[in-house]
Amino acid sequence: MTRTVRGVVVTTTAIATALTLSACGTSTGGDPSADPTDFVSGGTFTMAINEDPGNLSPLTGVNLAQRALVPFGYESLAYINPEGETVPWMAESWEETGTSITYTLKDGLTCADGTEFTAETAAANIAYQSSPDNGTFWFGSNITEDMTATADGNVLTIESATNNPFLLQSTGAVEMVCQAGLDDPDSLADSTNGTALYALSNIEAGSAYTYTKRDGYTWGPEDVTSDTEGLPDEIVARVVADEATSANLLISGELNAASVIGADRERIEAAGLDSVGILNPIGQMLFNEREDRPTSDIRVRQALTLALDQESIGELVTDGSYLPSVSLVNKIPLTCVSDGPLWELPERDLDAAADLLDEAGYEAGADGDRGLSIRFLYDGGTPTHGAAAEEVQAEWAELGITTELVAEDPTGWSTDLYQTYDWDTGFIQLAPSSPVVLSLFFLGETSENGGYNFMAVENPEYNALAEEAFTAPDADTACDLWLEAEKELIDRVDTFPLADTESPTWLNGATLEMPGSIAPTTIRMLG
Question: Residues of the signal sequence (predicted)?
Fold first, then answer.
């Protein structure tokens, strides 16, 4: 079951500044069924990504630029459209129970290397993903160690040792790799081997990644084939780190799609360009809870958040497009997102914050300084993060807290979050499509042990509710448990969802769907 967050139709979207997400639908500029007489087949669709993706393997990594490119080379058993509906893709149909799901694959599936993609290959994918030794992106969330898969002709059966009310949403979303790629995973770092409509044809590291349309493709969602009118012959992902440059290239027509969320969007709006939309948790804060960091103390985390004027910072970080967060799940299909959260963020209370810091041993000296220094990370490439971070610094200074602001680039993020762990908090976003995926970051192993829990969170109440939700008898019960679990994360201040916004990916000369990231089979070039 999928519960819908709110009645608002999101009309703007972003490619990947933070792990973001979409609410309901796209604008007319993103509808590939609109005005088909204007579609022109062939040519090149050029999009911007804000950093080099590096390793392109769909099996590992959480780099946002990388995840944005995964759909261009790989496909899933099912497709989730912008309305959150699950429709056939590699599989033509499925049947599920609480402990198993059986997919019937479409006929004629072939890989980029020309080999046939079979149910046996699909079963091998599930086996690879379910092994903790492989440390894949989906392990522990969509695919668990207690899952097994078998093949019989063109039928794939996945079984779970425990009840799982979301087998379709979880297993149906996993990108399938062809057998040669599973046999040699390292080969996927700089090549693609999936069943996708497009295959990687050229790499200019740090500059551009080119994907070329394959012939003979017949199995796309909504009956898309290689011959569908309006498809481009090539897709080029250009690395453009500067938003002003992206805006210039969009307006001139050198780019067909780019995320621009800062002041330059005014120029793009004035040029009359359309956009598609995703919900962006741009103001979410996470905390480093390792024992050697001050933020390991819940009283410090509570004090830091109580000292913040949420609306003031929210307006800055969203460039005036502030939306209060209503869920930690913010990506289609918005699994278990209700009409409102069980949690409620506290109002600003400087006196209560000061008392908590006193209790934690950070008492103010004669000069007001508490001897507490916080290392605050933010994305140097996100225009609104800098001003909002400075406001956070100023508000914490009222309590005698020293804040070191760190504008991160891709190398800095990787170093601080996953190597040195030299950080306390910051604008660090997650954009999961379900609470199961969210649990990967809060319930799973720490990054030191090969997991994605880079914050080193240990929340026993959350863990117990999550474990119960995994094996709930039905989706309604599971969702109720997940909502309670999410409340535990907020109550313990393991995360602070300060502000959301609707982030635009702007379009020029093309339409598309973007149920999270750009869906290549939905791109249509305009005349």
Answer: 1-23
